[in-house]
Design a protein that fits this description.
237 residues, alpha+beta, Jelly Rolls, 5-stranded antiparallel sheet, 4 helices, 12 strands, disordered N terminus, binds calcium ion
């Protein structure tokens, strides 16, 4: 009797775990963040700030290059390289002072916002795909669109925002974060807008700690299914 109760409890716990796995597989799109008229002023404003990552990269372009490992851009370039001094719209705090201006920092720009910028992650270089990825839109024209793609390249959905202000000289009150969380892995993120040039900063991505690797994930899901089968058979007998 005690053994059968234990088996039933074990099977139930596996079923609950299977439910957790299926919930974990769903994607969460985040943005524009923060809301309520607040802007992203430094990494402390990121929804990823302080999370327990196994690995994590933040590209703030302050060394005038896109050179964090395992990511490539479909288009555009570092703003200071394209334009030289001036006209940079960095995240505000990158110049050392949160003062409403990102003019003295650096960022990433593409002339054709309608074509967008896609950042694609390389699992071979990183060891695995990120579970968290995002960026900060810093200049351009509304409406703004953000899309993320799963481990197979399928869309995880699209966010849109309308928070651009009229200035093109480093104003940071309009800067907002867009991102995605997907435990199955994120292969790419893409930012675009309907009109004009587009500028971003704080490209950030990482893998959260304690996420089972794909092989373990499949094994645990299999165990859960097996446990569920046992439970069903016991109920029928
Ligand atoms: Ca910057
Ligand atoms: Ca500043
Ligand atoms: Ca701005």
């Amino acid at each position: 009797m005690v053994t059968s109760v234990r088996r039933t409890l074990f099977a139930l716990s596996l079923l609950v775990f299977a439910g957790m796995l299926s919930t974990a597989a769903k994607a969460q799109l985040i943005g524009p963040h923060p809301s309520g008229g607040l802007s992203y002023q430094s990494f402390a404003d990121s929804p990823f700030f302080g999370l327990p990552f196994s690995w994590f990269y933040l590209e703030d372009f302050e060394d005038h290059a896109l050179n964090v490992p395992g990511v490539s851009a479909s288009a555009g370039g570092v703003t200071s390289v394209i334009f030289g001094p001036g006209y940079h719209d960095s995240v505000d705090g990158d110049d050392g002072v949160i003062d409403g201006s990102g003019l003295d920092g650096d960022s990433y720009f593409h002339r054709y916002g309608i074509l967008g910028i896609q950042f694609t992650f390389n699992a071979s270089v990183l060891g695995s795909l990120p579970t968290h990825a995002g960026l900060v839109w810093t200049d351009g024209e509304s409406p703004i669109f953000f899309e993320a793609f799963d481990e197979n390249g399928n869309s995880l959905g699209v966010l849109n925002g309308s928070h651009s202000t009229s200035g093109y000289t480093g104003q940071s009150d309009e800067d907002r974060f867009y991102g995605v969380v997907h435990m199955g892995g994120i292969s790419a993120i893409r930012i675009s807008q309907q009109f004009g040039g587009i500028e971003i900063d704080h490209l950030q991505f990482g893998r959260i700690a304690a996420v089972p690797e794909p092989g373990v994930f499949a094994m645990l899901a299999g165990m859960a299914a097996f446990g569920g089968g046992l439970l069903l058979r016991r109920r029928r007998s």
